[in-house]
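Appendix B. Chain record.
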Amino acid sequence: MSINTGFSSLTPPPGELSTSHGEESKGPSITENLADSFADTLSEKLNHVESTQRDAQEKMRLFAAGEIENVHDVTIAQQKANMAMRITGLIREKLMQGFDTLNRMQ
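Structure tokens predicted for this chain:
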């Protein structure tokens, strides 16, 4: 029985970890892989927030032009965009707190 914890992206591929301290590593280090993975994930999520904002603006424009009659779709799109921006702000705050904590540790 296998349990999916969602941390598989944090595990380096087999052979990437070196057991001896004197050998040169082949390929990027674990830290570089995690940094790239984090940066890619963050970029992907920010692009999603931006597309949610554009979708809400477009639906509002279409509603104002009379091309959309269902106000519920417009309201839902605006609420999704609003929630995405609020969550993005909260994540930014947590990242800044973590950065500040790391700076204090040095």
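Further analysis of this model is presented in Appendix C.
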